[in-house]
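yo, Lipopolysaccharide export system permease protein is done. seq:
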Amino acid sequence: MINVQFFPSRQIALYMGKTFLLRTLAVLAALVLVLQTLDLLGESGKILAVPGNGDAQLWEYVSLRIPQLVARFLPFAVLLGTLITLVSMNQSSEIISMKAAGISAHQIIAPLVLASLVVAAFAFVFQERIVTRATARLNDWQAVDYGKVPAGSGTATNVWVREGDDLIYARSVEGQGNATRLTGVAIYVRSQGTLESIVTAASGRPDAGGWRLNDVETFNVERGQTMRAPTMQLGSQIEPERFTLAAVRGDEQDFVTLKRLIGELQAGGRNTTSLEAELWHKLSGPLSAILMPLLAAVAAFGLARSGQLFVRAVAGMALGFAYFVADNFALAMGNFGAYPPFLAAWAPFFLFLLIGETVLLRTEE
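structure:
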């Protein structure tokens, strides 16, 4: 008689879920430990090169980098944890025993999918509450080459704004509204795509409907002449918000904040395609964990004595890594505007959901 329940018995479900979670955590810990060690070896020289930095700064870097590594490699850990769990159960004939008891392939995988859903929920909360804040702090710290970060934070770096044909660059932007302060300003004055002059200034601030630049140097490209002035009044009507909103980074914002910022950018006529793709990926990224048991299920079935268990494990791993390649490719195409944002974030997820379900159905037959 065939068992029509979605899950196997409570004992089997708890056993499989517990085994899967423990092995996933072990794989994740090993991955993060190795990758963090290699990353620290590459960055420790830059950190310690700053006068006053020492062991405390190295540990601070580790505390900010680990959340990024956990968020990025958690789906990999789920994939490898699923493969290890299913391969070991296949080798010990536990899968065969379940099949002989009338438990279907879907019922065998169901506890792993449910546990993966718990992992996905944790990944989303961890990303929203910890990873975004750690990323923002680390980006600010790296912007000053691991030196002392200015008090008040909120400093945006390497900001570009376009006004007509002209391009305006600011090395750093602090404050908001009329309190906005620009540092390391460069204005590329163009006419019909031809560069006419380059204006550089040590700093700038809003003043009388325009901008007041300090310590200004103007280079005329056609004449090859340079002129200097202590100050210059720039009559541009660029609002200070253009500089602050231009530096919005999706990986530094939680879902709600990023959605609000996208609305503000759209109201200002800005292109938000890449940010919208990142917004949707904040949901599809953590949910990718529930795909891994489906994609790795091919390693669970088939006789271990047939000699094809290794081939099945490699096939499951290949399917999992193919998803990550497709996901990164689609997200990149979304950032370029080649794919609509929703499609860029969700198309790989639904595609490999269908592939995983197809493989499982063929296995069921």
